[in-house]
Amino acid sequence: MAKNSTFALPALLLVAASATVLSQTPNQSPAAPATTAPAPTAAQPAPTPGASTPTHMATAGPATGQSPSQSLGLLVYPAKQQTPAQQSSDESECYKWSKTQSGYDPMAAAQQSAAAPQSTAAGGTKTARPGVKGAAGGAAIGAIAGNAGAGAAAGAAAGVMKGAAAKRKAQAQQQSAQSQANVAQQQNLDTFKKGMTACLEGRGYSVK
Questions:
Q1: Would residue 102 count as lying in a domain?
Q2: 2, 89, 160, 204 — which has fewest CB within 10 A?
Q3: Is 123 buried (19+), middle (13-18) or exposed (0-12) by CB count in 10 A?
Q4: pLDDT in tens, 140-153
Q5: Which among 70, 75, 76, 69 has a CA at the least distance from the CA of 205?
Q6: Could you report the per-residue pLDDT of 82-109, keeping only the tens digit for each?
Q7: Which of 74, 75, 77, 68 is nearest to 105 (CA)?
Q8: Number of domains comprising the chain
Q9: Domain assignment present for 175
C-alpha cells in the first residue's frame, strides 16, 4: 500500500502543475479576417496637345462687325500707310464729327426704322367693318320706309364700297408719307457721307 502511494504522488503533482499552467495561459482571440486593399485606380491619360475640344466646351471667338466706313458703303484706302488700328480710330472720330456737323446718325436711323413696323403692329386697333355699319344704317332707313331687309342690303353694299375707297386712300397716303421719309433719309445720309469723306481725306485717306 505504501508503495502505491509513493507512485501516485508524483502523478498528482504533475496533473496539478498542468492545470495551473493552463489556467494562467490567456485566451487567444480569433484572428481578424484579413482585409483586401482596394486596387489603385488607373490614372487618366493627359490630354494630347492639339486634340479637338468637345463641342459643348468649345468657345466662340469674338464677333467681328463692320467698320463705320463699311456700314456706309465707303471704300477707304490708307494712302499714308496708316495701320489698321489707326484707321479704325480715325473712322470712329470722323463718324462722330460728321454726325455733329450733319445732325444725322445713320445707325440710330436704322434702329428706328427697324422698330417702327413693330410699334405700328402693336398699336393697331380693331374697328367695325364698313359693311356692318352700312347694313345697320340701311336697316334703320329701310325700317322707316317699310322695307328693312332691302335697306340693310343696300346699306351693306354702300358701306363696303365706302370702306374700300377709304382703305385705298389711307394706303396711298401712307405710301406717299413713306416715300417722302425715304427721300429725306437718303438726303441726310448723303450729307453724312460727304462729311465723313471730307474728314477721312483730311487725315490722309483715299475715299470712294
A1: yes
A2: 2
A3: exposed
A4: 655 565 665 666 67
A5: 76
A6: 999 999 999 999 999 999 999 999 999 8
A7: 68
A8: 1
A9: yes
